[in-house]
Amino acid sequence: MRAIFWINGWLVRLLIVLAILVIVAMTLGISAEVILRIFGFPSIVGLIELTEYGLFISTFFAAPYLLRHNEHIRVDILMSRADKETARVVEFGVLLCIVTISVITGFVATVVMIGNIQNNTLIFKDLIFPQWWLDWIIPLTCVSLTLQAFELMATLWTSHTPVSHEPAEHVPGIQREEMP
């Protein structure tokens, strides 16, 4: 199991690098589009469409990294008020929900992807390409999210360290002495 978690760790790192590269490419493309328009040149065909796909890709590729580094959306104010054992149970429950949602979403996305491959489904916009070129992203990231959640659950199960639920020190306007 440790080897699977190690491989998933490298997959998570690869996905975040790809997400960053996609965001950089979108930024450069949009900047080039603006410069071209300023000087009266025609627009780059398909750039808006590629940017939409880039947002989709970067969002899904970044999700496992955010979970791995505990940067996912959570309600820390509730966790900071709970006792340590309750916080552990809630954290375990949240990770179980992540596993459940990832497995269901990954299964449905895989079924849809296989159907699109079998039917040779194409996307017709400015660019024309097979639908599965986008479909594979969701099952891959769902597998990575599931493995990441299992790794965090295993760590939580074997650790005697309380769940980290530091007060929101990074929130402007909230002082440390105002936190519970």
From TrEMBL:
Protein known as: TRAP transporter small permease protein
Transmembrane region(s): 12-32, 44-67, 88-116
Native source organism of the sequence: Pseudolabrys taiwanensis
Subunit structure: The complex comprises the extracytoplasmic solute receptor protein and the two transmembrane proteins.
Family the entry assigns: Belongs to the TRAP transporter small permease family.
Membrane topology value: Multi-pass membrane protein
Its job: Part of the tripartite ATP-independent periplasmic (TRAP) transport system.
One Gene Ontology term, aspect cellular component: plasma membrane
Subcellular localization, as worded in the UniProt entry: Cell inner membrane
Domain Tripartite ATP-independent periplasmic transporters DctQ component intervals: 26-157
Pfam families: DctQ
UniProt GO molecular function: transmembrane transporter activity
